[in-house]
Write a sequence for this structure.
């Protein structure tokens, strides 16, 4: 093997990649923990985000202008600023105005800040997904609901939203899938998620390649499982039009 | 017209309520009666009060004295650094890094993405597609060979792997691989985490941070752009292809002269949305210590001990730049309708 000549790239040989390092000591345990951390953070953030997104979408289609403007401003504000900035603002910024005090447990502090930032950020995306679902419901449905004398809350809650949510199953899955990857921004503040743990272990063990491959595999598993689940849900529940 | 004339809403009422939906929106309400109008007006006033209260609370929270900042966040000393040109010089440097990475990234993604969309949409057996797929196969085989051998790809080019590369290319041409190749490319990189795509060149090959960010963004966003362009291509009427072929254009000419110009025009708003998204994702460069706008702001914040003002300025710059792109996208969408 001729590795002596200086090349324009330091090119690692396949033979130098030794995946067995992932199974040494407690590396595998750490990886599983990191995987669960990403999963927990994303699922919690998305559970909260869907609820807030539903509220925001409702505000945006309501006939009340202040609510429409406020929800629209919130959505644009959240979407147009990168998630990494939000995470930094929540973790470093809030304690400065006495809103999120540091406790003794740093990992809990970072998790809490990351969770709130991701949840608030992703709610804007869910709001957009649900709103496009609402707009895809045919006008005749709302007209029919009004014709039988339902009030606005019933038109929206019992007729439009059930159909809209069933239409937005796939878009919600897409947002969830994007959230796994974008939630990696919380490793910026040191939450022990997949990206953070694989970087840190790869650095200490000088095994960047192996741990990065492991991280790719983790995200692939998340993406494939989520895709499968949401495709199944969509097939079962989506309104065929 | 019989019966009582409907009372017209006043200016105050019109300012607070939305009587008619815009195009493309679902009409959830129609002309309201007096009772409906009154209840909507009352809710509007109440919600306006709540929104104003929330705003006032945030403002007070920022201005209130805290343990760390006894004079609150509006104290002039905290904003003092933004009066000096050095601060703005640093921020401008960061913004330049962000914008240049995003610009190069979006140009590369557009080239690769449109190419992939065209390959996947087309028949896959035109000369251009075959040559491209053959070249891609050669490069892939060389890279793989070099990795296996532990050499540089250029070195690998000079040794016997050249034969394997040619064999791979010929196989690719015979199988008519272009379509499958672009499908595999798009489906693979779309499922990858962008942070890791950015980190990989840096960690595997020791690429500089700026290039690493551009590389990762290009790999990821070329797939999303390929999908956007492909759906635009599919939305074109079939007659366009038939007409192009009927007047004697080759399939490649039909694609480049008839289909792509129309498809890109249709996809333009979505492409701009992708551009905005790419620009935001440059901030994920923190993983390779890329000194973009966010990391410069962080550095300034640490140096001046003014975290909130610095991050607020940083967020304001992001929202301005991305707002301009989104505004253009919305304008285009409206003019196209």
């Amino acid at each position: 093997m001729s590795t002596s000549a200086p090349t324009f790239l330091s090119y690692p040989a396949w033979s130098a990649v030794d995946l067995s390092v992932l199974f040494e000591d407690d590396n595998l345990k750490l990886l599983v923990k990191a995987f669960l951390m990403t999963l927990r953070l994303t699922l919690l953030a998305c559970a909260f985000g869907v609820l807030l997104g539903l509220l925001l979408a409702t505000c945006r289609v309501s006939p009340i202008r202040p609510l429409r403007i406020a929800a629209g401003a919130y959505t644009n504000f959240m979407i147009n600023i990168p998630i990494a900035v939000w995470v930094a603002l929540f973790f470093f910024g809030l304690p400065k105005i006495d809103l999120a005090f540091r406790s003794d447990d740093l990992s809990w502090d970072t998790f809490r800040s990351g969770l709130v930032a991701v949840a608030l950020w992703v709610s804007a995306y869910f709001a957009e997904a649900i709103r496009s679902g609402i707009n895809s419901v045919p006008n005749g449905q709302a007209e029919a609901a009004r014709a039988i004398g339902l009030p606005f809350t019933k038109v929206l809650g019992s007729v439009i939203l059930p159909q809209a949510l069933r239409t937005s199953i796939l878009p919600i899955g897409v947002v969830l899938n994007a959230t796994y990857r974008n939630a990696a921004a919380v490793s910026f503040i040191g939450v022990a998620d997949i990206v953070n743990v694989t970087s840190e272990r790869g650095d200490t063990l000088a095994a960047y390649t192996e741990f990065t491959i492991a991280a790719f595999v983790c995200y692939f598993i998340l993406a494939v499982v989520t895709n499968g689940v949401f495709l199944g849900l969509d097939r079962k529940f989506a309104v065929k039009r | 017209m019989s019966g009582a004339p409907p009372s017209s809403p006043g200016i105050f009422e019109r300012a607070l309520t939305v009587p008619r939906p815009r195009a493309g929106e679902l009409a959830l309400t129609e002309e309201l009666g007096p009772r409906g109008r009154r209840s909507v007006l009352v809710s509007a006033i109440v919600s306006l009060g709540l929104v104003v209260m929330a705003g006032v609370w945030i403002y007070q929270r920022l201005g209130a004295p805290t343990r760390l900042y006894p004079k609150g966040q509006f104290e002039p000393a905290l904003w003092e650094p933004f009066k000096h040109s050095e601060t703005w010089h640093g921020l401008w440097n960061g913004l330049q890094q962000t914008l240049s990475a995003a610009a190069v990234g979006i140009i590369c993604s557009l080239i690769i993405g449109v190419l992939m969309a065209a390959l996947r949409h087309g028949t896959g057996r035109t000369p251009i597609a075959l040559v491209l797929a053959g070249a891609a196969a050669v490069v892939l085989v060389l890279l793989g060979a070099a990795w296996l051998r532990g050499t540089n790809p250029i070195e690998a080019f000079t040794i016997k792997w050249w034969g394997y590369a040619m064999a791979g290319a010929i196989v690719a041409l015979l199988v008519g691989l272009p379509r499958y190749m672009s499908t595999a490319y798009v489906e693979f990189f779309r499922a990858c985490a962008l942070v890791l795509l950015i980190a990989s060149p840096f960690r595997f090959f020791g690429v500089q941070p700026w290039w690493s960010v551009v590389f990762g963004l290009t790999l990821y966003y070329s797939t999303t752009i390929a999908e956007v362009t492909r759906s635009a291509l599919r939305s074109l009427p079939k007659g366009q292809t038939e007409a192009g072929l009927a007047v004697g254009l080759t399939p490649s000419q039909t694609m480049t002269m008839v289909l792509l110009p129309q498809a890109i025009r249709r996809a333009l708003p979505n492409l701009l949305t992708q551009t905005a998204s790419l620009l935001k994702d440059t901030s994920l460069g923190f993983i390779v210590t890329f000194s973009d706008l966010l990391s410069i702001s962080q550095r300034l914040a640490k140096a001046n001990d003014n975290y909130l003002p610095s991050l607020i300025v940083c967020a304001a710059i992001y929202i301005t730049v991305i707002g301009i792109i989104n505004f253009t996208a919305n304008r285009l969408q409206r003019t196209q309708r």
In short: Chain B touches chain A through 71 residues (CB under 8 Å). Chain B has 14 helices and no strands. The CA atoms of residues 111 and 222 of chain B lie 8 Å apart. Chain B has a mean pLDDT of 83.
